[in-house]
C-alpha cells in the first residue's frame, strides 16, 4: 500500500516561541542573505523595491528558477495528490486535511546557464499530469529550455537593458544552485484567500524574498508526498534436485531446503521540504505542512525451499559368478529438511520533518512569537514485513531394487526400507519496524535582520560559478564572480586552499585534501568577510593498496584521495564488508574472495574500486589475491590407491585448508602415483601411467622435476617414499632379505636426499612427510593372510614347513607379522631422523619447516582385522575397493600389463588405507598445517 493512501487529517496546536528561541547571529544571517543576493543578481535584480506585486491564488505549484511579478504568473494545469491543506478550526486547533486535485504550475525563469541570456517571457514547463514516481536523486536535472524561447530582455523594474557586465554575470551564475530550488522575488507577495502552495517533486526548497507579504484566509504551504509502495515478495525457490542413487547400503539424505531470504526493507519516507522567508513586513499567518513522509511496510519474507527427495536405495549386488547375493538392496534416503521461512523485511524509516526559517525585522518576529500553525514532525516508521512460509520436508527415497541371483534374491534385508520424509523448516519472524523520522536540527527558526541592510547593495565578494564543478585533490579550479581582491583566499569545506587571484572577477585555487563528495566553496577577505557559497564536488581516486598481495578474510588498506565516511569498496562488483575510512586518503576493509575469480595458482587477479555513498566511484586498480597451492608427490599412499577422489587424504586436507583460510583460492597438483620409488641414483626415464597402475616411474625425485609451475608459490608439499624401494613383497616374505640395512638406506639416506631437493626447490612451502603403518598384525584374520599373499604374488617356502602359494605354516605367519612390525618401526625412526637432519640445514633448504605426520593406525586396525583401516581382500581374491577396482582393471589392461603384473595391478588396493585410514592420515596432517 502506498504511503500517501494512508493520509489522515491532523490537528495542530499553534507553535509558540520564547525570546530565547529567536536566533540572532549576524554573520550567519548576512552570509545567507548574500547568497540569495548573488542568485537574484544573476537574473538582473539588484533591488526588490521596483518589482511590483506577485499575486498567488488557488492551488499552485512552484517551479525551479525565479518567479517574479508578471501580468499572468499561472501556467499549465496539472494534478497533485497526497498533500494537506488547512481547514476549519477545532477547539482552537488547526485542522489539516488530505488534499489533492488540480493545480496550476507557476511560471518561472529557469536558472541561467553559461552562454544563455535571461528570456523576456518566462518559460512554462510542460505539465505533469497524474501521480509522480519517487525521484531518489533530488538534484536530477530538469529539461533545458528550448533555444527558440530564449532572447535578450530588459528588467521588469528598469527601462534600461542589462549592461554587458551584468548580462555576462547572468550567463555564468547559478551553476551551483540545485534545480530543486524555487525562488519568489517581489516588492510584495499577496497570497489570496484559500490559496494552497504545493511543493511537488522534485522541488524541495522554496525561498521567498519580498519587502512585504500579505496572507489571506486559509492559506497553506504543503508538499506532495511521492508514491512509495511496499516491496514485492521475493520469488519462491524451486525444490532442490533429487539425490542420486546411493552407492552404499544406507540411503543418502535429501538436500536440505535453502532458507528463505529476508524480505526487502521498506521504502524510507521522504524528508519534508524547506521554506525560507525573507520579509520586512508581514500581515496574516499561513499554515505550514512540512511533516516528513511515513515509511512503508517491510517486504514479506521469502518462503523456505522445500527439502529434497532422499536417494533411492542401492540395487542388490550379485557375486562375480552370479550365484549368490554379495549385497542386499539398500535403504532409501530420508527426505531433506525444509528451508526456514525468511524473516520479514524491516519497515522503512519515516522521513525527517521539514524546516521553516523566517528572516524578518524584530517587529515582525515579535508578532509571530505569539504562535502560528506548522507541522515539522518526522514521518512514522513503517511496520516490519511478515515472515515467509516454512518449506515442507522432502519425501523419502525408495528402497533399492531386488536382483535375482541363481540361488537367492538380493533384496532388502535387515529392515531396510524407504526413507522417511524430511522435517518442515522452521518458522520465520516478522521484520522490525522502521524508525520514526525526527525533526531536523532547528526545524523552526526566526532570525532578526536589519531593514536597511536588507535593501542595501553590499560590496562583498560573490561567486557565480566554479569550473570544473568536480575535481580531484590538488586539481586547479577556477572561480568566476565579482569583487575579488588580491588578498582573498578560497575556503573549501572550511579548509583554506592555495589561491591565486587574477582579477576582480576571476581566481583559481587548488583542491585541498578533503573527504570525497560535495563541499562548499567561499571566498574570504582579509577582514573575514565571506562570499556566498558555491560548491565543488571532490572526486575520489584510487592509487594503490598497501599490500602487494592480499588474502581473503584479511584486512586490506587502500591508498588514494577523496575517501569519505560510508564509502563502499567493490571487488569485481561484490560489496566488501567492514569498510573503515581512516582518512580522506586511506581506508581499510575485509576482503571476501569473489566467486568468479579467474583461476591462477600463482595469484588471482581482482579489480577493486571505491564508491562514495552517492554512487560516484573511483578508477579500478588490479590487486593479486593470495592462493594456496598444494603439491602431492610420492607413492600409492599419497596417491590414495583404491579411494574415490573425495576420500583421499589430500582431498580431506584441501577441505580443511579452505575452511581455515576463509575460502582462499585452492589449487592442488598431484604427481604421486602407485608403485613410485624414491629412486636415488636412478637415471632411467619412463612415461607416466594412470595413478592406479603400479609403476616405479616417474620416481619421487623425478616428480619434483616434473613440477613446472612457479615453485615459490607452493604453500604445502605432501611427500612420502621408501616402501616401494624395499618392495612390500620382501616385507611379507618370511624368508625375505634383512630389512634393517634396507630401511636405513631408503627411509633415511634416500629420504634425506629427497627432502633436500624438495626444500631447495619449494623455498616457501611447509613440507609434511607421511609415515607408514603395520600392514598385518596379531589381530589380523590369519586364515585370510594366505589369500592376501597370493594376491600380491608373494611366494612362501622354507624351513617353516610352508609350501609355495598355499598352506602357510604358523612359523611363517609369525615371521610375517614380525617383519611388518619391524619395517614399520624402522620407517618411523629413520623418517624422523631424515626430517630432523634436513630441518637442521640452513634456509632455504631447511629451517624447521619439515614435519613427520604419523598416521598411527595401530595394530588393531591393520588389514584383515575386525575394524580395518587398510584394504584387505575377499576370499575369492576380489579387491575390497568396489568403486575404483573396475576402472583400475581397464587401466591395467590399457597399460599392457600381463601375467602376474596384471593380476597384482587388479588388486593393487590391497594393503592400502581404506576411507577410515585416509581420515586417520588427514587427522595426523591437519594439526601440522
From TrEMBL:
Keywords: Hydrolase. Residues 465-534 form the IPT/TIG domain. Residues 295-310 have a biased composition (Gly residues). One of its GO terms (molecular function) is hydrolase activity. Residues 234-258, 288-315, 331-352, 413-444 are annotated as: Disordered. InterPro entries: Ig-like_fold (IPR013783), Ig_E-set (IPR014756), IPT_dom (IPR002909), SGNH_hydro_sf (IPR036514). This is SGNH/GDSL hydrolase family protein. It comes from Paenibacillus spongiae.
